[in-house]
Amino acid sequence: MKTLKMEYMTWPDVRAAMDAGFTRVIVPVASIEQHGYQLPLCTDAVLGEAAAVRLAERLGDALVAPVIRPGISPHHMAMPGTLTLRPETFRMLVEDYIDCYTRHGFREIVLLSSHGGNVKPCAEIAQRYAHVKAVYDVPKPEELRELERIHNLPVGTNGGHADERETSEMLALEPHLVHMERVEPGFTEPLTPELLEKFFGEGVQALTAVGCVGDAKEACRERGEWYLAHTTEELMRQLDAIKATHGG
Ligand SMILES: [Zn+2]
Predict the structure, then answer these.
(1) What is the CA(237)–ligand 1 centre distance, in A?
(2) How far is the CA of 43 from the centre of ligand 1 (A)?
(3) Which architecture does CATH list for 6-246?
(4) Distance, CA 166 to ligand 1 centroid (Å)?
(5) What's the rounded mean pLDDT across residues 69-88?
């Protein structure tokens, strides 16, 4: 097959793929939101789709749905261009995707969230359907520390938003959209539970005027490739863990 992205296929291609055993669909659930001085608003959409395509290639029986581009991003609304959906709009949109693919006969739907604000709502939606699973390309603070250790980067480089990791991945995928000459450090202190509450409650501007949580100055394409490969393994691990607890 030329592509695993369903929106680039014709309907007979989709039917033929399903007949040939492509019974899963991965839905990237992203965001359109500010990503500091150096990255475009579409960053989570680009990264989410790339993660979905790589995961689909690895699984061998999955197609990739059109990206759900806006997500739940009220904490980035201080910066212009950011979109945020009302929680019920978001839920209905994701459920309509699920209903359509279920009607067409896909046996499993994987929601792949590439944005922190979507994690909880996606988990809640997945809980209500036996054939829907939710996985996340949203590393926890301890996972980000581990990535910094592996690559010998200063602590705080990767805070999880418009940071070195996301910027490196964008350099690997869409370098023409990255403005490395504009990089400024954002919030680089360890994110305590209190600070996370401030981040989600008051908004990113309560921590940094730049809009990054992290510092992207060390970002590079090569490490971006490494992160993308690492993400595929992490998503496989999450799917295996779901299988181990729930079966199927
Ligand atoms: Zn992001």
Answers:
(1) 21
(2) 6
(3) 3-Layer(aba) Sandwich (3.40)
(4) 6
(5) 97
- Partner residues linked to 109 by β-bridges: 25, 132
For residue range 148-200, list pLDDT tens digits in order: 999 999 999 999 999 999 999 999 999 999 999 999 999 999 888 899 899 99
Q: Is the model's pLDDT at 246 over the cut of 80?
A: no
Distance of CA 108 from the midpoint of ligand 1 (Å): 26
Radius of gyration of the CA atoms of the chain, in A: 18
Selection from 38, 42, 17, 14 nearest residue 30 by Cα: 42
Spell out the domain ranges in the chain.
6-246
Quick one: 127 exposed, middle or buried, by C-beta within 10 A (0-12, 13-18, 19+)? exposed
Q: What is the pLDDT of residue 248?
A: 57
Tell me how far the alpha carbon of residue 44 lies from the centroid of ligand 1, in angstroms: 5
Residue 1 confidence (pLDDT) above 90: no
Residue 34 CA to ligand 1 centre (angstroms): 8
